[in-house]
Amino acid sequence: MNFEEKLLTTKSIYHGRIINLEEQTVELPNGQTAQREIVRHHGAVALLCLTAAQDKLILVRQWRQPLSKTTLEIPAGKIEINESPSVTAERELNEEVRLTAKRLEKIAVFYTSPGFADEKMYLYLAHDLQPVQKKLPQDADEFLELVELTMEETDQAVEQGEICDSKTLMAVWYWKLLQTQAKG
After folding, report:
1. Can you say how many angstroms the Cα of residue 160 is from the centroid of all Cα atoms in its chain?
2. Cα separation of 100 and 89, whole Å?
3. Which pLDDT value is given to residue 142?
4. pLDDT at position 141, please?
5. Residue 138: left (phi > 0), alpha (psi -120 to 50), or beta?
6. Which residues contact 123 (CB under 8 A, 6 or more apart)?
7. Contact, 124 vs 107, CB < 8 A?
8. What is the rounded average pLDDT of the residues 7-33?
9. Model-wide pTM > 0.70
């Protein structure tokens, strides 16, 4: 079966600092038409950061207005125009957790919510973390608290809903896989 939708028209609804919103009219495979609301986002990175002994996960606690609550998340940030994902990763490590990595290992590239958005996220494992020599300025509208959790504490934070976003859940599952492989 052919699933492809044919784009008929695109209308810009909103152009913002982080996202753009457009409305599309498409022709469906059965010949009918439908409306699609698409959020355009330049992309983002996320970082799985573990303490030197790899027994704790480094997270940031922050308020998330769309959820009206505080969450625990792995460090992350949006890719600037003409910036590579690895450069964004290095910048976000510095800005959010004041660390630098000797090596970044790409774990996965995924779309955060393809039903309505084109945001592509790059998930990295940061190896050999060290304190930064020169601190970059933090975003003026970001208030963060660094938190280090053991696997047991991380599981509790997931169960309590404090860790609830897809990038962090994916990182937690990858960390569990790494620990299983280390034991095996």
Report:
1. 20
2. 9
3. 84
4. 85
5. beta
6. 45, 46, 47, 48, 106, 107, 108, 109, 110, 167, 170, 171, 174
7. yes
8. 97
9. yes
Task: Give CA–CA dist 113/150, Å, rounded.
Answer: 29
On the 0-12 / 13-18 / 19+ scale of CB atoms within 10 A, 72 is buried
Tokens 């958005």 label which residue? Answer: 117
Q: What is the DSSP letter of 134?
A: S
Question: Residue 1: its pLDDT value, please?
Answer: 85
* Residue 22: closest CA among 90, 106, 118, 108: 118
Region of 9 please: left (phi>0), alpha (psi -120 to 50) or beta.
beta
**Cα–Cα distance for residue pair 57/24, rounded to 1 Å:** 41
How much is the pLDDT for 122? 98
Q: What is the SS3 assignment for 38?
A: strand
**In Å, what is the CA distance from 13 to each residue of 7, 10, 43?**
17, 9, 20
- Please tell me whether residue 3 adopts helix, strand or coil conformation: coil
State whether residue 181 is helix, strand or coil: helix
Within 10 angstroms of residue 127's Cβ, the number of other Cβ atoms is: 12
> What mean pLDDT comes out for the span 128-142?
90
83 to each of 27, 78, 98, 106, how far by Cα in Å?
Answer: 35, 10, 20, 16
pLDDT above 80 (res 54): no
